[in-house]
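cron nightly-structures :: item 1 of 1
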Amino acid sequence: MTAAAPLIELSGITKIYGSGEAEVRALRGVDLTIRAGEFVAIMGASGSGKSTAMNVLGCLDTPTAGTYRFEGVDVGGLDRDQRALLRRNYLGFVFQGYNLLPRTSALENVELPLIYKGLQGGERRQLAQEALEKVGLSHRAHHDPSELSGGQQQRVAIARALAGKPDVILADEPTGNLDSKRSREIMELLTELNISEKITIVMVTHEEDMASYAGRLVTFLDGSISGDKITRKAG
């Protein structure tokens, strides 16, 4: 892949749910290009299509029409197993609800996706420890989620996304369950990872002050992109 080639390219993406009177057009011919190293915030009202677009990007949903290319590969031409491999090897996910296993240590939670990648115990443990160190939580590696604050739990979730060394982190309302101080800490962490680790980040948020940390703001309205502006250069 050349430096100028898009990492992600959506062309004419349409997503329709239901049919007849129950038909809902969640996406209406969306065109979106994201280059490696960008930090993109996606905003829009409820029902605007931003979450559907994120699900398409994460290979959690397939479009009704249009083309999705990831590093030049037509994702629509992949079968279910190949899409699962794409998610596993190239994408990291961070959710609003952390999604940590409750009676499992932070380190073991971070190791979990590496098990699915087929890595052996020693290598898994090393990568998980490195990821926790990057998010400033190596000293809490052996604590269960119940022993961690909300901000610390989200840091564990980010470490879990980082451990597999993804090309892209997809973050869905990553500060939605946090107070303003913890939210700023998480956004500063994501910004640092974007700049220092050169990780591409695509984040859905409804909070303008959180979106301001991103280098680019894409706004959805009624299933289409209504705004797209650069706010700072990619890390």
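cron nightly-structures :: done
The CA atoms of residues 151 and 182 lie 5 Å apart.
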